[in-house]
Automatic annotation (TrEMBL):
It catalyses: L-kynurenine + H2O = anthranilate + L-alanine + H(+); 3-hydroxy-L-kynurenine + H2O = 3-hydroxyanthranilate + L-alanine + H(+). Catalyzes the cleavage of L-kynurenine (L-Kyn) and L-3-hydroxykynurenine (L-3OHKyn) into anthranilic acid (AA) and 3-hydroxyanthranilic acid (3-OHAA), respectively. Signal peptide: none annotated. Pfam families: DegT_DnrJ_EryC1, KYNU_C. The keyword Phosphoprotein does not apply. This is Kynureninase. Belongs to the kynureninase family. It comes from Salinicoccus jeotgali. NCBIfam families: kynureninase (TIGR01814).
């Protein structure tokens, strides 16, 4: 065990991102391993929220156009700040609504079913909200049986070949996660997109678990649209406004969910009853933006601009490599199942481990200051985050896990999930 601490110390002293840790509020004596569910608050995010509140105090209604960060343009401004993280152009990215709402908006707008081609391809491992949205859209479009789910052979990962084989001429649109929220597998977005384009299929990705953790080249790959939340790796705070990308080639399509904030800004306040759509991504907005739920992103995204997503990814892989190596070393073979793919190209920013007593183990970890999250029926997700976790945090997490397993301390807790898990 001790030699792993030495490795951790040496990695921490060579860590070029180590300086960012002090910019986050990290509870003392705790090891936060849940940044892929809710990222921690940074001082920059706190300051930007306070400064936007100050603008309200000082300017009242004029805050829409005055102050340092006029509210009228904030959705677009944050979109620009996120563009590099996904490899898109400024006028293709926007902060608006929630992820689920953005799926409704983009899929409803871009899905153009015909009798021959009306199916939507999803996967059986995706987050339920994405599936509910797609099913609702199919119900409304008169194709309630149009959803096709890519099966998983092992219950954890998807095969690109299977996905591609299912993308036939009956499929109108495919929406898949970039990184699976449980196993952490990265799907081969470029290959899937290439195949979709060749076959006239609209392709979109849900980047909730990849944005801020891995780099993307959506524009170059030719992805049609993408959605993501900003409260996970982007550290925007609980319920922070989501992100949206739509390839500029689709900007001429009129959006399905229309509202006055999707109108051309020049004519928005003419208050005409004739919708005059914005000519870029702005058209995808609906109503008045949730300013205080966006404001933390102004600060939080500056940290990403400074750190650079390539360095974030590099350290993230080192952290998860270190965690996997330590687990494999300190536990008996098979004692703890590592579900996440070990290949770098197929691994996102978190690790999923399996054990029949996972709920009890998760509770025991929490009682000892480690904050992971439990995923039913028998898995624990652990996310060491490059911007604020150290290698020593990872060392302590696995050391505590080892104590729990050796002492069977999980037996003291009910092997059952809480309301939020
Ligand atoms: C976190 C997450 C969501 C959450 O959607 P909201 O609309 O923000 O509640 C949706 N899909 C995936 C894949 C997620 O990981």
């Amino acid at each position: 065990m001790e030699e792993w601490l030495k490795v951790a110390h040496s990695k921490d002293s060579n860590d070029s991102l180590a300086k960012f840790r002090s910019q986050f509020y990290i509870g003392s004596g705790s090891y936060y391993m849940d940044g892929n569910s809710l990222g921690l608050m940074s001082k920059a995010a706190e300051e930007s929220l306070l400064s936007v509140m100050e603008d309200w105090k000082r300017h009242g209604i004029d805050g829409w156009t005055e102050g340092e960060r006029p509210w009228f343009y904030m959705s677009e401004r944050i979109g620009e700040m996120m563009a590099d993280l996904i490899g898109a152009e400024h006028h293709e990215v926007l902060a608006t609504n929630s992820t689920t709402m953005n799926i409704h908006q983009t899929v409803r707008t871009l899905y153009k079913p015909t009798e021959e081609r009306h199916k939507i391809l999803v996967d059986e491992l995706n987050f339920p909200s994405d599936i509910y949205a797609v099913q609702a859209i199919l119900d409304d479009s008169g194709y309630p049986n149009g959803m096709v789910e890519v099966p998983s052979e092992n219950g954890h990962t998807l095969s690109t070949d299977t996905i591609i084989n299912m993308m036939d001429e009956s499929i109108a649109l495919v929406i898949l996660p970039s990184v699976l929220y449980r196993s952490g597998q990265i799907l081969e977005m470029e290959r899937i997109t290439e195949h979709a384009r060749k076959n006239g299929i609209i392709v979109g990705f849900d980047l909730c678990h990849s944005i801020g953790a891995i780099p993307h080249d959506l524009k170059e790959w030719g992805v049609d649209f993408a959605v993501w939340c900003t409260y996970k790796h982007l550290n925007g705070g609980p319920g922070s406004v989501a992100g949206l990308y739509v390839n500029e080639k689709h900007h001429p399509h009129k959006v399905s969910l229309r509202g006055w904030f999707g109108n051309n800004k020049e004519t928005q306040f003419d208050m005409s009853h004739k919708f005059d759509p914005a000519l870029d991504i702005s058209q995808y907005q609906v109503g008045t933006p949730h300013i205080f739920s966006m404001a933390p992103l102004l600060g939080s995204l500056e940290i990403f601009e400074e750190a650079g997503i390539a360095s974030v990814r590099e350290k993230s892989l080192e952290l998860t490599d270190f965690m996997i190596a330590m687990i494999e070393d300190v536990f008996e073979e098979g004692e703890i199942e590592i579900v996440t793919p070990k290949d770098h190209d197929a691994r996102g920013g978190h690790i999923l481990i399996g054990h029949p007593d996972a709920a009890g183990i998760n509770a025991a970890l929490k009682s000892k200051g480690v904050i992971p999250d439990f995923r039913a029926p028998s898995y624990v997700r652990i996310a060491p985050v490059a911007l604020y976790n150290s290698f020593e945090d990872v060392y302590n997490t696995i050391k505590i896990l080892k104590e729990i397993m050796d002492g069977r301390l999980y037996k003291k807790f009910e092997n059952k999930r809480g309301v939020i898990a």
